[in-house]
Amino acid sequence: MADYKLVIGGEGVTTSDHLDVKNPATEQVVGRCPIATDEHLDAAVDAAATAFLAWSVVPDEERKAAVCRMADVIRENSEELAELLTREQGKPLNGLGSRFELQGAEAWARHTATIDLPVEILHQDESGSVELHRKPLGVVGSITPWNFPLMIAIWHIAPAIRTGNTVVLKPSPYTPLSTIRMVELLNEVLPAGVLNVVTGRDDLGQKITEHAGIQKIVFTGSSATGKKVMQAAADTLKRVTLELGGNDAGIVLPDANPSEIAEGLFWGAFINNGQTCAALKRLYVPDALHDEICAALVEYASKVQMGDGLDETSILGPIQNKMQFDKVVELVEDARARGARILCGGTVPEGSGYFYPATIVADVSDGFRLVDEEQFGPVLPVIRYSSLDDAISRANASESGLGGSAWSSDIDRAKQVASQLECGSVWINNHGMVKPFAPFGGVKASGIGVEFGRQGLEEYTSIQVVHS
Ligand code: NAD
What we know:
It is a single chain. With 468 residues, the chain is an alpha/beta fold. It has two domains: 2-244 and 443-467, Aldehyde Dehydrogenase, Chain A, domain 1; 248-428, Aldehyde Dehydrogenase, Chain A, domain 2 (3-Layer(aba) Sandwich), CATH 3.40.309. It has helices at 38-55, 60-76, 78-89, 98-112, 149-162, 177-186, 202-210, 223-234, 258-270, 290-302, 322-337, 369-372, 388-396, 411-419, 453-458; strands at 6-8, 11-13, 18-22, 29-34, 120-125, 128-136, 139-143, 166-170, 195-197, 216-220, 239-243, 248-252, 280-286, 341-344, 359-362, 379-385, 403-407, 425-428, 447-448, 461-467. Strands 14-15-16-13-12-17-18 form a seven-stranded mixed sheet, with helices on both faces. Bound molecules: nicotinamide-adenine-dinucleotide. Nicotinamide-adenine-dinucleotide is lined by residues 143-147, 170, 172-173, 202, 205-206, 209, 220-222, 225, 228-229, 243-246, 277, 374, 376, 402, 442, 447. This is Aldehyde dehydrogenase family protein.
């Protein structure tokens, strides 16, 4: 059984305590994750602070080249990382699984290397000039979830490093091993201390948010934890970027063609087994199309193979952990008990692992837990509507505001609906397709700030205005 190490100041550091990381497909232990003490965290923050002195003044072109080298390292080691990711996260190697995640991580690093934040001239005349400069913040604490551990880590660390900050990264206790391995590899092309990783349980996240030596927190996780992060960060007035939970609604317009949109709807909802922040989690369909859309979704679901992610033929894997598995079962059983129809899936297969089949649920409505709460799993509730305005207001009647979608043969009509949805991203005829150049973030309880693109990069900087 492999024991993994923390990475502090470019060195592997062993700990006396560990926690077991399980493969959700087999419930067998994959490896042992180190548990960092307070002293380890202090050492990681010190290493990052020391590295910041030099890294923050390295010429921009050198930092761009370093982030490109990070992308190269991810590409060169993608098979090793994908396999480890599948073992601990459960997602399949194929489909929209581990290899796809590694491709995303590489693409994001490569694109982030190209974005510039040039000095802006705000004013210039014979009396002088006013210039806006962007400066790095210092040590960034990055806290990541278990659904896309590697891609989300890159979403945090590439822009931080690109802009001259240094990083202390803490992955989820459910999926820390692939992140540790990726950080070890990235340290081969980064100066010591620029990127450190500490691992442990949730309390380590709280200690990071409270730590006086850290200037900013970038956090991706649930809205409940995001609120705690913001509170804990307040004492030291840290900058925060919070990418939180979603309960995204999709609205099918009456002119949509069910057979044309079924595949997009299915993957909008079931990407990563539904364990995706901006997945389609509630689908509103007009009465006239309801049965046809349900049938098309059920037919598509029947073709998608679920199994151990290491099997090259699997397209969906298990749910990542027992806690999430139990929540999904509970929400479906609650809906069933209240008279919902389970059109496909909805039963736990025999055998080990946290497998749950792709499940489509009809005869549900707002007020059901499955509709009102974020299921974060392979279940899609299909909700009828008779008035489009009513569907829009039900879609907006949620604390969350991460993503949304409108599905129609008429793009302009779909855009009109999209503009009325209260969310940070809205897609027409697809759901959840993020791009490295397009800012991504939530409104309402789905977060604060954005990632990606120039606006995402700016969040890792402070403004200094130079008047001359
Ligand atoms: P979580 O909030 O339970 O955990 C996220 C991370 O926070 C983990 O590393 C955890 O150890 C750490 N943590 C736990 N308690 C903490 C505390 N008090 N202070 C600081 N850190 C703490 O979330 P999860 O279950 O890992 O991920 C699922 C959630 O994340 C879902 O709600 C999903 O929608 C959301 N998510 C959002 C995005 C986005 O971009 N908006 C992306 C992926 C996931």
